[in-house]
Sequence to fold (219 residues):
Amino acid sequence: MRLLLVEDDHMIGESVLDILRAEHYAVDWVKDGLLADNLLRTEAYDLVLLDLGLPGMDGVDVLRAMRARKANTPVLITTARDAVDQRIAGLDAGADDYVLKPYDLGELLARVRALLRRATGRAEHRYEHMGVVIAPNTREVTVDGQAVVLSSREWAVLEPLLARPGAVLSRAQLEEKIFGWEDGILSNAVEVYIHGLRKKLGASLIQNVRGVGYMVPKA
Ligand code: CA
Fold:
């Protein structure tokens, strides 16, 4: 497994590098956003550990550029505990998970393992409906053959619906899936993400079941 560590703080970088190498991961470490962006355009990594406050190029911009290229490498962002806005921006830009600094190295390793497991345990399962093809394990989505990128929170809404096509989930059940991504959830958050998903994936994929909730039809 080859990891890219992007961290400009020397002491944090050293300790993370040590613990990752002790776990036998191959790790490249860069301390600058521009360098990270260049590497990610030319090298193949299994996971990126990305600090957001970086010289050269902001971590969120590095991430946005990756996702704009349809690079689906798992990205674990590392942010300060009080930087909630930064964390939300990172998740919206396509980060898969985050750890808060100062972090527990054991927790960091557990999150790295979880993301790698998710990415490498790619099952062949595919959901297809009227030109929309979704591979839930890799998060690859195409509409009429064109790749589409979903935000983490759009995934959080879509995933439970896709897990059981034909089953209806209430708004409250879907809210639970996105709660925790931010401190205060807007009362219409589910509707907002459903609206976004319909714009990207077509109006017929997620159906309203009046008075009950939402479902995706059986493929
Ligand atoms: Ca930093």
In short: The mean pLDDT is 87.
